[in-house]
Design brief:
It is a single chain. The protein contains five helices and 13 strands. By secondary structure, it is α+β, with helices and mostly antiparallel strands. The longest helix is centred in the first third of the chain and has 29 residues.
Length: 240
């Protein structure tokens, strides 16, 4: 009876020490995490402000625009934004498009066309190619590479752009999303099974984000980061 009691006490002590060690490790990891579970938006991706935070899309260099003026077919034009953020249009010449939202550019073009050319012009702007917004997908996806994104795009949608996961080697619990936040390189780990089930929110991805799908059983810097991450979906500093 005494031996059995002694064994139970030793077992309880061992479990208590393990819990403390585990708790301390979690607290240590949390020290590097951004407060809260919400994914913070990245820093401005281009000098002209081609997409900042969760605001409306802002036109950037190399975007391809389809511009039309209702009732005046001769003014309809497809133009690409140059490196200075400008476009050139009939009658009104050079116009700064970079850094503006689509409604802002439509209003500016309408104002310019109304100055001595048209009465109450109705201008429409459609972005055909979001060349200034790109994300990188690496690792165990079917088609790794750099992909343009159009408007609001989630992690699941981004992975679909790369043809989905390589089901033979992909680690569903090892999806790493990296971005620049406040000038620092940060990352968060996602379990795609939880995202698909709605347990974890499908996060939005932004221009210049990098998504890495780890391979099962790999031994890499990403694997070390995944194993030390304090919680699913919480950004923390990433040291390659």
């Amino acid at each position: 009876m005494r031996n059995g009691l002694r064994f139970l006490l030793v077992l309880m002590l061992a479990l208590g020490l393990a819990a403390c060690a585990s708790d301390g490790g979690a607290r240590s990891g949390q020290a590097n995490a951004v407060a809260g579970n919400a994914l913070p938006p990245p820093d401005t991706t281009t000098a002209s402000g081609a997409y900042e935070g969760a605001t409306d899309y802002r036109i950037g260099a190399q975007d391809l625009l389809d511009i039309s003026v209702f009732g005046v077919q001769d003014l309809d034009k497809e133009v690409r934004v140059n490196s200075n953020g400008q476009i050139s249009l009939p009658l009104i010449g050079a116009v700064l498009a970079g850094g503006r939202t689509i409604p802002e550019l439509e209003a500016e073009l309408a104002r310019k066309y109304s100055e001595g050319y048209l009465q109450n012009p109705q201008v429409s702007v459609f972005v055909k190619e979001y060349a200034s917004q790109r994300i990188t997908l690496e690792g165990a996806v079917s088609k790794p590479g750099i992909y343009p994104i159009t408007g609001k795009t989630t992690l699941l949608q981004a992975i679909a752009l790369a043809g989905g996961l390589d089901n033979k080697v992909a680690d569903l619990g090892g999806i790493v999303l990296m971005r620049q936040v406040n000038g620092k390189r940060m990352a968060a780990v996602f379990d795609l099974r939880q995202v698909r089930r709605g347990i974890v929110e499908d996060p939005q991805v932004y221009g210049d984000d990098i998504v890495v799908v780890e391979q099962s059983g790999s031994k890499s810097a990403f694997r070390n980061f995944i194993e030390s991450a304090p919680a699913i979906g919480v950004f923390r500093w990433f040291f390659p």
